[in-house]
């Protein structure tokens, strides 16, 4: 199936000090790379998850795709059209075909607007003034299960967290987008409400055929709601593949530790926790070689000297990773012994 969204070698950086201070201190590159050479694609009707610790660059990628942040280099293509370098007016027709659900359900809703105004704002932005505002608001509210008629007249402070989340989803669906970017769609919600939100997204995906990019720390959500997942560390992808495959056979030591930290609801389950020693390195002082070597329990001398290239499993070319000593079951073995294929889709 052809890719709906394709991101290639994306790099996003932020300035750490002003030009005058950089000149005074002799700093040649007063920037940090929040996203560093990331490549991936999302196919039509597919759900892809971005997973990683806070600060790994997940939300920055989402904001760059939607146009809220500019990339330094790389490309973003939507349905075969490069949109990353388009101006706001040129990108507008493509933004109509994608939408974002923001992480903070209340904070993403203007406190000055009613729910009806919030839901119909996309129509005004894109010049669809012939729509019946009241009718469209009620249609969208029914889609997300907010049935009482007075919901359209409420303000954000009159909504619970779950209701605000549903309003955010309804607003994202207003223009029937082909891609929805959901940044922590279940964060801060009760478990029962989380299930309702996930079931809602799954149902709407089946009905509308849209693709979904989910950003989440909740690995249970990722396992049950996504087709593929990408693991991020310090702004890079270190492992990408089918969700079930990564959960069953993680190849990168960081992925192994991340999955081992997932809460287990069974109180009698035997837990095999993996303790990662040390702190997450600063983006201002990236480690040399493999950036995870400062916390890896399988670290060898080569790990601190040489940045690992992209590799893929010989029997699953869409499962790719960056590691000198990829895991095989419970054992980390050198790449030269494993002789992994370098063909097929790889990380960048």
Automatic annotation (TrEMBL):
The ABC transporter domain, residue ranges: 5-259
Keywords: ATP-binding, Nucleotide-binding, Transport
GO cellular component: plasma membrane
MF-aspect GO terms: ATP binding; ATP hydrolysis activity
Gene3D superfamilies named among the record's database cross-references: P-loop containing nucleotide triphosphate hydrolases
Chief place where the protein resides: membrane
GO process terms (BP): peptide transport; transmembrane transport
PROSITE patterns noted in UniProt: ABC_TRANSPORTER_1, ABC_TRANSPORTER_2
Compartments it resides in: Cell inner membrane
Domain of life: Bacteria
InterPro entries: AAA+_ATPase, ABC_transp_ATP-bind, ABC_transporter-like_ATP-bd, ABC_transporter-like_CS, Oligopep_ABC_C, P-loop_NTPase
Family statement: Belongs to the ABC transporter superfamily.
Function of the protein: Involved in beta-(1-->2)glucan export. Transmembrane domains (TMD) form a pore in the inner membrane and the ATP-binding domain (NBD) is responsible for energy generation.
Protein name, per record: Peptide ABC transporter ATP-binding protein
Native source organism of the sequence: Bradyrhizobium japonicum
């Amino acid at each position: 199936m052809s890719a709906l969204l394709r991101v290639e070698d994306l790099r996003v950086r932020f300035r750490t000090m002003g030009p005058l201070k950089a000149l005074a201190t002799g700093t040649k590159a007063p920037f940090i790379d929040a996203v560093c050479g990331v490549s991936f694609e999302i196919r039509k009707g597919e759900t892809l998850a971005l997973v990683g610790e806070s600060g790994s660059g997940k939300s920055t990628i989402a904001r760059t795709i939607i146009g809220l942040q500019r990339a330094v280099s790389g490309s973003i293509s939507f349905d075969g059209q490069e949109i990353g370098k388009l101006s706001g007016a040129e990108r507008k027709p493509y933004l109509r075909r994608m939408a974002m659900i923001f992480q903070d359900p209340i904070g993403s809703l203007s406190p000055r607007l009613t729910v009806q105004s919030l839901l119909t704002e996309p129509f005004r932005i894109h010049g669809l003034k012939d729509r019946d505002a009241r009718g469209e608001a009620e249609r969208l509210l029914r889609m997300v299960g907010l049935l009482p008629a007075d919901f359209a007249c409420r303000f954000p402070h009159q909504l619970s967290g779950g209701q605000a989340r549903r309003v955010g989803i309804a607003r994202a669906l207003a223009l029937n987008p082909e891609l929805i970017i959901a940044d922590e769609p279940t964060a801060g919600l009760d478990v029962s409400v989380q299930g309702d939100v996930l079931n809602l997204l799954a149902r709407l995906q089946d009905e509308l055929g849209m693709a979904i990019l989910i950003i989440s720390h909740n690995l249970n959500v990722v396992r049950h709601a996504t087709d593929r997942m990408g693991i991020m560390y310090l702004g890079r992808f270190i492992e990408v593949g089918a969700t079930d495959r990564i959960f069953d056979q993680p190849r990168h030591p960081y992925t192994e530790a991340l999955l081992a930290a997932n809460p287990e609801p069974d109180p009698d389950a035997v837990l095999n926790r993996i303790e990662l020693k040390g702190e997450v390195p600063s983006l201002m002082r990236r480690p040399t070689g493999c950036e995870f070597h400062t916390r890896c329990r399988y670290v060898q001398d080569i790990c601190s000297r040489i940045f690992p290239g992209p590799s893929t499993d010989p029997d699953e070319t869409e499962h790719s990773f960056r590691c000198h000593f990829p895991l095989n079951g419970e054992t980390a073995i050198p790449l030269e012994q494993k002789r992994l294929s370098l063909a097929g889709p790889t990380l960048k």
